């Protein structure tokens, strides 16, 4: 185990590991690389002003997500600049979209970098839970709005129940944050009982869990901060959906409005296509949902008024910007900012620096 940790602490290994991932991906998914050629063709034929705005919208979406990270960490008195948060958002997004199941690698990178910033384990977990809960709630809100305004046949009640569940989950986490003493009392009572059922020592893990709970006292997250964080999470979703809206404009030469025209979809049609794409890409059978996401977008856009040709072009333009461009940019940031330390934790990083300093003194 120590040898494995030493290997991951080696800066050359962590740098080459990221490069190796890219090489393996190119080999495994070389049959799908024709998407690059299609994307370049569609981008060349698209409306330049719409393309420029789509790129800006996609980058603003990630910037809003970075602001969510910055504010959630600031609640635990771990202050980072928006630039640092944005760099990590780009790099972790690159890992997430480049591998089947890449979200796990993205989470590990995010966790380790946040730990190196000085965030506690509890604060890192707080970030993942709260940011995911808020983001999912907004995704469901957009879905409900699209379904209601389109008048489509869909299970609005199932969406409403999902929203309610996420709202309750968010409220529960917020309540726990405001009541650490009660949570500590429950832990001291319930955890020993659970340990007995699992045939472990009654006090196993109690001290560690209580120590983590007490760190909640260091998290200061008033209602006003929650509101601003939620707004930024909403902007993350809206800017991403706007990128698809602008991609349709780039292809057709007309912005989708409230009413469908000849071979044209509507704003809500775009919103429904966006939600469907996010659901289709959640499994990530291929990197970034390549193939499944495009199919989902095309199907909905055609169903809401667009021709197959225009819908396909719009889907490719959207993915060329929100997937290819942003992923490439994320890998550049990763190699420039994080590849040296990679997935090393704070202890490994400190040990490495101490070893380097010892060598320099010797």
UniProtKB/TrEMBL annotation:
It is found in: Cell membrane. The chain crosses the membrane at residues 12-29, 49-66, 121-150, 156-177, 289-309, 315-336. Keywords: Cell membrane, Membrane, Transmembrane, Transmembrane helix. It holds the Pfam family LPG_synthase_TM. It is a multi-pass membrane protein. Its main location: membrane. The keyword Cell membrane applies. InterPro entries: L-PG_synthase/AglD. PANTHER family: UPF0104 MEMBRANE PROTEIN MJ1595. This is Uncharacterized membrane protein YbhN (UPF0104 family). It comes from Corynebacterium guangdongense.
């Amino acid at each position: 185990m120590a040898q494995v940790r030493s290997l991951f602490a080696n800066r050359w290994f962590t740098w080459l590991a990221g490069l190796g991932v890219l090489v393996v991906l190119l080999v495994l998914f070389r049959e799908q690389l024709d998407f690059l050629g299609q994307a370049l063709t569609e981008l060349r034929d698209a409306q330049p002003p719409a393309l420029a705005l789509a790129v800006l919208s996609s980058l603003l979406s990630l910037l809003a997500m970075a602001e969510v990270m910055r504010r959630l960490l600031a609640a635990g008195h771990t202050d980072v600049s928006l630039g640092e948060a944005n760099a990590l958002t780009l790099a972790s997004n690159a890992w997430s979209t480049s591998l089947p199941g890449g979200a796990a690698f993205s989470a590990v990178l995010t966790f380790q970098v946040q730990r190196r910033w000085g965030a506690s384990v509890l604060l890192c977990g707080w970030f993942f839970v709260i940011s995911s809960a808020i983001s999912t709630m907004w995704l469901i809100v957009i879905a409900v709005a699209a379904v209601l305004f389109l008048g489509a046949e869909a299970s609005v009640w199932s969406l409403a129940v999902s929203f309610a569940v996420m709202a309750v989950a968010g409220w529960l986490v917020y309540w726990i944050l405001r009541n650490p003493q009660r949570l500590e009392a429950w832990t001291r009572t319930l955890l020993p009982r659970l340990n007995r059922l699992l045939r472990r020592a009654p006090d196993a893990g109690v001290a560690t869990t209580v120590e983590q709970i007490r760190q909640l006292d260091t998290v200061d997250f008033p209602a006003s901060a929650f509101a601003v964080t939620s707004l930024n999470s909403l902007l993350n979703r809206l800017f991403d959906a706007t990128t698809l809206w602008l991609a349709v404009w780039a292809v057709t030469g007309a912005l989708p409005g409230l009413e469908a025209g000849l071979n044209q979809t509507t704003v809500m049609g775009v919103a429904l296509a966006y939600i469907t794409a996010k659901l289709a890409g959640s499994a990530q059978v291929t990197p970034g949902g390549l193939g499944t996401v495009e199919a989902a977008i095309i199907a909905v856009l055609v169903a809401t008024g667009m021709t197959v040709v225009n819908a396909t072009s719009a889907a490719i333009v959207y993915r060329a910007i929100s997937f290819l461009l942003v992923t490439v940019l994320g890998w550049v940031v990763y190699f420039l900012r994080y590849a040296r330390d990679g997935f090393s934790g704070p202890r490994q990083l400190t040990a490495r620096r101490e070893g380097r300093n010892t060598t320099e003194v010797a």
